[in-house]
UniProtKB/TrEMBL annotation:
Native source organism of the sequence: Terriglobus roseus
Annotated membrane topology: Multi-pass membrane protein
Record localization: Cell outer membrane
Database matches in Pfam families: Plug, TonB_dep_Rec_b-barrel
Full protein name: Catecholate siderophore receptor
Domain (TonB-dependent receptor plug) ranges: 160-258
UniProt-listed PANTHER family: CATECHOLATE SIDEROPHORE RECEPTOR FIU (PTHR32552:SF89), FERRICHROME IRON RECEPTOR-RELATED (PTHR32552)
Keyword match Transmembrane: yes
Taxonomic path: Bacteria, Pseudomonadati, Acidobacteriota, Terriglobia, Terriglobales
GO cellular component: cell outer membrane
Molecular function terms, GO-annotated: siderophore uptake transmembrane transporter activity
Length: 901
């Protein structure tokens, strides 16, 4: 059966590879026809005579345009500027291969040219109304624009260099060079981010922690919240923005430690085709395509596609399979009015990783005489074979399906102001049944692991509308850059389960109360050897082998290919129908939650000589309702419980910056965030979720941060160095009091520092590096009875004290680029609780090394190689508070054949 499955997968890979190849050839033939119309000097033929309706005439250098040109060589970026501006941009041949950071934002033509030349020591001069000449700067002349990528949101009222907070933009070039295929892989280039795991909700999807705070509900796409549980891809991502520290003014609710925003690929006014086919070790196969076409002088279309089929290095049976498409269309109705649209679809079918159990579960003695083989450990994962798979290969799965539609209209009010309206609808489904390596009953002490079935059947849909007005101008002698806006959103979740269980041979099939109602058996009947009553530790491993449904496997030699025994039910729902075994049934008894939010916000940066004052404020009216399963659905016999929660949230940011020179910014800032109960919409591990009685009456968790920092441009503006020192204090944390009651009176504190450098140290050497130190402790953790106060001063979960990331690339020749990465983090706690020897869980620190090389045969073809985790380091990427931790992939080699036309 395994052989047939592999053959089917191979045929699928070959068919999809062939399809991508035919698509690429067809597009290239079309491009070749276009190329034939170019003249001998390489200039394009005259553009189409289709024109945009004009409401004004202005000098080309002063007209304002919206740019979204990615980083590339200076020749490529200049060609894109030619298309966007409709003018000739001449670059000396010997400088065309120099790196350019690209152009982003609403800029005049002169500003766009300056941005394109960041870090190049080149200048741009309009020699006529329709011609620009690029030339080398005169000796001693300076470039004063940072080479770092910029933030895309209109809410940011200053360049990245002058923004008074810790922000990192991961550009597409870094995503590509690091061979990142998912958001989790891309975020390894940003220190200070850890990843959590869980039991329910979203245990195996993206759960980033920024400065120790769960950021799953603070993840955005194109500036709009994307809360649906999933594992995010990057095939349609232009850049990833990471904001550290409370971001309530920008992100709204939550964002206590920061937020993440993914910028989607949008259509541009140029023609290109990029394609990649990448085979690798561990049965890795991936293909991507990204094609853009200028349809007319006022409309463009783009299509990004992806297919991935891969096992995971160092892990038996774990597998990832996904494919997706993302078309986009951009067009201008007038010189002032522009539209962007995007549709995103991705489907995945994975076999999840059950993880590795911790070595200190609660101990219970068995009464059947089985020998104990392990003693209580110190709380780290067990030292077992890294390939150990504690799941069912024939049963476990994780399926997701994501569909989103995005539209944006932008109108230029004046030469220095715009109004933008954005709308996004998204729906994500996440369905899974997977085995968790459950240590809660202490079976590992006897060399056993219970494969507990975790399951979920859920969807989330969101409707979000934003309106922003942004611009700049003077009030008296003070220059202001401002942004104001409003947002209205409605988010809904539907969370149900499957019925999955093992067949206990001692339990008879019983009647049911409706069609296909499962009978979920129990295990605590009799001991399989002595016939005595089963002790607590044996409730999940009392009956071993096939007789117990193979739900218990050997700790040191797990057998992932075991047959499994599933739910048993009557086909006709009564006592006489055929018995159905080994089935996974949808319960269709969902809980529901709806969140409605109405928000207004405003930001302003004022320049007073060498000082810059920045302020922001946001108000959110947060209204949510949680509903338990409805009476009469399946076996539900009680009336539903409806739990509402209503809060008015106000968050702020205030900052002052001093600029001793144009290159330097020294700042101090204060900011806040608020996280109300039910914030995660039931999509994550939320201790304040509305499914827990009484949580709706608790006040929002509030975080306040003070940060001082410095940003400085180096090497003539080619690189940006940053340093920041911060302290975050969180109040209203939900804790258990000494009398075992729950109250929102807990507190925690995080003191630390962030350092980074991004850009080019010289014309050939690019770096993207950072270091983060965090001293994150629980200052009032509560605790019932004798445990009261024992956790005070202890670390809180998913917060490494030290973490670092260095990605570095060097051009040995014009054709050969080499480099790699060094990534690491210190010890991470899933739980730092000294109450008992069983309650502390942690994973050790690690250092990982990656290598990279790329050879460009010509301007169209490149061969790239990546060796990830060179030392085959066995380290843990996700730590749960109990039960298990998840291993990172082992050594992985990949080759990518990249084409560009």
């Amino acid at each position: 059966m395994k052989k047939n499955e592999d053959s089917t997968r191979l045929r699928g890979k070959l068919m999809l590879t062939g399809t991508l190849a035919m698509f690429a050839m067809g597009t290239l033939q079309s491009e070749a026809a276009t190329t034939a119309d170019k003249d001998k000097e390489g200039n394009k033929a005259k553009p189409s005579t289709d024109t945009v309706p004009t409401d004004e005439q202005a000098r080309p250098s002063q007209q304002v345009h919206k740019f979204d040109i990615p980083a590339g060589t200076l020749g490529q970026v200049a060609a894109s500027l030619e298309t966007a501006l409709g003018i000739k941009v001449s670059v000396p041949e010997k400088y065309t291969s120099m790196p350019s950071p690209g152009v982003h934002g609403v800029l005049t033509a002169q500003e766009a040219l300056t941005a394109a030349l960041q870090g190049t020591n080149m200048s741009a001069d309009f020699v006529s109304a329709d011609r620009v000449q690029i030339a080398l700067h005169a000796t001693g002349q300076d470039v004063t624009v940072t080479a770092s990528a910029e933030m895309m949101s209109l809410k940011y009222t200053a360049p990245l260099r002058d923004l008074p907070q810790t922000l990192t933009v991961i550009p597409e070039t870094i995503i590509s060079n690091t061979a990142s295929t998912t958001l989790v892989e891309a975020l390894r280039t940003v220190p200070g981010i850890a990843f959590g795991a869980g039991e329910g909700g979203n245990p195996i999807g993206d759960r980033p922690y920024i400065r120790g705070v769960d950021a799953q509900s603070s993840t955005f796409v194109d500036g709009m919240r994307d809360i649906g549980a999933q594992s995010r891809e990057v095939f349609d991502v232009e850049s990833v923005e990471v904001s550290k520290g409370p971001s309530g003014t920008f992100a709204g609710r939550s964002a206590g430690g920061g937020s993440i925003n993914l910028n989607s690929k949008m259509a541009r006014r140029e023609n290109f085709l990029n394609g990649t086919f990448s085979p690798g070790t561990s049965n890795f196969f991936r293909g991507t395509i990204d094609g853009n076409a200028k349809l007319t002088s006022w409309a463009s279309g783009r299509l990004a596609g992806m297919w991935t089929d891969a096992d995971v290095a160092g892990r038996d049976f774990v597998h990832n399979g996904r494919y997706g498409l993302a078309p986009s269309l951009s067009f201008s109705a007038t010189k002032r009015l522009h539209f962007d649209t995007n549709y995103y679809w991705i489907k995945s079918h994975d076999r999840p990783d059950p993880g590795i159990p911790y070595n200190n579960p609660t101990f219970f003695a068995r009464i059947d005489g089985r020998a104990q083989v392990y003693q209580t450990g110190d709380g780290q994962p067990l030292l077992v074979n890294r390939k150990a798979f504690y799941g069912f290969n024939s049963r476990d799965f994780s399926d997701s399906n994501v569909n989103t539609a995005f539209g944006r209209a932008e109108y230029k009010l004046t030469e220095t102001s715009v109004i933008r309206n954005s709308y996004r609808y998204g729906k994500s489904n996440q369905n899974y049944v997977y085995s968790m390596a459950d240590d809660s009953q202490g079976n590992i002490y006897y060399g056993l692991v219970y494969r507990r079935a975790q399951q979920r059947l859920a969807w989330v849909d969101t409707n979000i509308n934003q309106t922003d007005i942004a611009g700049s101008g003077k009030i008296g002698s003070i220059q202001h850059t401002y942004a104001v806006g409003a947002e209205f959103s409605r988010e809904r979740s539907w969370n149900s389960t499957y019925s999955v269980g093992a067949l206990d041979p001692t339990q008879a099939i019983t009647a049911t109360t409706g069609p296909d109602i499962p009978v979920v058996p129990t295990f605590n009947v009799k001991n399989s050897v002595t016939g005595a009553t089963v002790a607590l530790s044996e409730t999940r491993c009392a009956v071993l082998g096939a007789a117990g449904g193979n739900y218990c496997t050997d700790l040191l030699n797990p057998t992932g290919d075991d047959a499994w025994a599933g739910v048993t039910s009557r086909k006709d729902g009564g006592t006489s129908g055929a018995v159905m075994t080994n089935s996974i049934l949808r319960n269709n008894i969902p809980s529901r939650q709806v969140i409605g939010t109405r928000s207004v916000y405003g930001f302003d940066s004022a320049r007073l000589g060498k000082f810059q004052l920045t302020g922001g404020i946001r108000y959110d009216h947060y209204n949510t309702t949680y509903r338990t399963p409805i009476l009469g659905m399946r076996s539900i016999t009680v009336a539903p419980t409806i739990t509402p929660a209503l809060f008015d949230l106000v968050n702020y940011q205030a900052a002052v910056a001093y600029k001793p020179t144009q290159k330097a910014t020294i700042y101090g800032t204060v900011s806040s965030s608020a996280t109300p109960p039910g914030n995660s919409l039931g999509q994550g591990q939320d201790p304040s979720g509305l499914n827990t009685a009484g949580n709706n009456t608790l006040p929002p968790e509030k975080t306040r941060m003070e940060e001082v920092g410095v940003k400085y441009e180096l090497f003539g503006g080619k690189a940006l160095a940053t340093g920041a020192w911060f302290q975050s204090d969180t109040q209203n944390v939900r804790i258990t009091l000494a009398d075992s009651t729950i109250a929102a009176v807990g507190t925690r504190r995080n003191r630390g520092a962030d350092f980074g450098i991004t850009g080019y140290l010289n014309r050939k050497w690019q770096v993207f590096a950072g270091y983060t130190f965090m001293n994150a402790i629980l200052t009032n953790a509560g605790g019932a009875g004798v445990a009261a106060g024992l956790q005070n001063g202890r670390r809180y979960p998913n917060t490494p004290e030290n973490s670092y990331s260095i990605s570095s690339y060097y051009s040995l020749t014009r054709k050969l680029n080499v480099g790699g990465g060094l990534y690491g983090a210190g010890k991470i706690f899933g739980a730092d609780n000294p109450t008992t020897i069983y309650s502390t869980k942690w994973v050790p620190g690690y250092t990982r090394v990656d290598l990279f090389a790329a050879y460009r045969f010509n301007s169209h073809i490149e061969l790239q190689g990546n060796l990830l985790n060179v030392g085959d380091k066995a380290y843990f990427l996700q730590a749960y508070t109990t039960h298990f931790a998840l291993l990172a992939p082992g050594r992985t080699g990949r080759v990518a054949f990249n084409v560009h036309w």
